[in-house]
Amino acid sequence: MSSDVFRTEHELSDLPWTDLPEQRSAEPLDETFVFQFAEVDERLGPDQRWTTWLDVERGCRGPEPRPDWVVTEQAAIDTEFGILKTGKEADVFLLERAVDAIGDSPARSSLLAAKRYRTEEHRSFHRSTAYVEGRRTRNSRDSRAMAKKSSHGRSVAAGQWAYAEWDALNRLWTAGVPVPYPVQVDGTELLMEFIDDGEGGAAPRLAQVRPSKDVLELYFEQIRCGMRELARAGLAHGDLSPYNVLAQPERIVMIDLPQVLDIVGNPKGMEFLLRDCHNMATWFTNRGLEVDEQELFADLLSMVF
To answer: Which residue spans traverse the membrane (predicted)?
Structure first.
């Protein structure tokens, strides 16, 4: 064995490559190779979770171009603030998705509406059968499970409503229909744009407001245009009423869209479309703006055929 393997401390100090760095004139390190690390507190509260944005499949995230307010950072945290609305088939919760400032990236946050569908045994959406006529389940295993009403089948049924609304929101938002921007869908949970009242609170339903005549006319024109865009796509809301429309100071937004149906493909498509016209025409007429439901119905049919 070579004697070079063993050297005393005195001998090592005599070697030229042991000169201390401070004894040399070193050039400053390029900042490109300097990494800044910040400690992150990973403890979450009982009403918090890490963002699920990248946990879902690619097709389960909102359509592009996405609004600037959508938070996509994986370091974001979802914080639940409570329930906004209870419904026949789902409950809607208020959720904030926020990320702290990291390096040169500023802190960002946005409020979202988290709609969570119940399984069949916990919901009372009694018109389900009429709405889903003409729809197909994605695979035969799911169809059999739904027919047997097994736990998997009930979960599939709930998920079907979530994905039906997700598909409708994507299609309608892209077409310019006034609906909330769909952020993502994950199982039975649908995250979408939170529609506020302009002052930080939740926007009221159309049925709760008493607009002036000018605003009433503005609202109706937006409703009519939205229904026309739906009809142009061959669709009807299916459950449109003043309770499924949110009213901002100068803008209306259609909500609750899991039952959107094909006007021609569904045997009751025309019936549902006419009912949508009746509900909206009645409300506007009662508020002082004369709207003929038959004229509205004929106008929408001209977009279909």
So the answer is: none
